[in-house]
């Protein structure tokens, strides 16, 4: 049986490109790719763990706007971000936006305050603050598993 030598990308690259500089670039690229794979593996393991521990929660993939760079293609390449449990809300007055309880509570409060102020111009800021807090406390947040889809 003949002895076969496995293909070595580094030797091949050195042969066709020449020298240690090419090998250094390939090695750096490989290290970057290995870090990406490690990060991906960690993020997917965390997602699996969150899903096992919270089987009744939906998974909400949130795609970064930079991933979808234009209308010229139908698919785009992204990478797995860190998954986490959060709470979301889509209010009737702003159906195009999803609010996250962990990040957007102040922004949502400001929107509610501004709406109440427009509708009730005679109320004082103190009354508006109180009504805003009441409205925020009545919001029904939905607990979900959020996975960010980032640039590769």
Overview of the molecule:
- This protein is of the alpha+beta class.
- The protein has two domains: 1-53, no CATH class; 57-152, no CATH class.
- Helix content is 51%, strand content 18%.
- It is built from four helices and four strands.
- Helix 1 (9-17) runs antiparallel to helix 2 (19-53) and helix 3 (101-119) crosses helix 4 (125-138).
Give a brief description:
With 152 residues, the chain is of the alpha+beta class.
Mean pLDDT: 85
Shape: elongated
Derived from helix and strand composition plus strand pairing, the structural class reads alpha+beta
Number of strands: 4
Q: Quick one: biggest sheet?
A: 4 strands, mixed
Write down the Rg: 25 Å
Q: Layout of SSEs?
A:
Blueprint: H1 9-17, H2 19-53, E1 59-63, E2 79-89, E3 99-100, H3 101-119, H4 125-138, E4 142-150
List keywords for this structure.
alpha+beta, 152 residues
């Amino acid at each position: 049986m003949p002895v076969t030598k496995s293909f070595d990308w580094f030797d091949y690259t050195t042969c066709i490109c020449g020298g240690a500089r090419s090998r250094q670039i390939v090695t750096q690229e490989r290290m970057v790719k290995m870090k990406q794979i490690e990060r991906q593996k960690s993020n997917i393991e965390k997602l699996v763990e969150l899903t096992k521990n919270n089987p009744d929660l939906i998974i909400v993939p949130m795609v970064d706007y930079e991933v979808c760079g234009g209308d010229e293609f139908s698919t785009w390449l992204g990478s797995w971000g860190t998954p986490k449990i959060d709470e979301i809300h889509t209010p009737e007055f702003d159906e195009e936006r999803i609010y996250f309880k962990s990040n957007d509570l102040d922004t949502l409060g400001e929107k509610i305050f501004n709406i109440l102020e427009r509708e009730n111009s005679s109320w004082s800021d103190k009354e508006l603050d109180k009504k805003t807090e009441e409205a925020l406390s009545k919001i029904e947040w939905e607990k979900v598993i959020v996975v960010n889809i980032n640039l590769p």
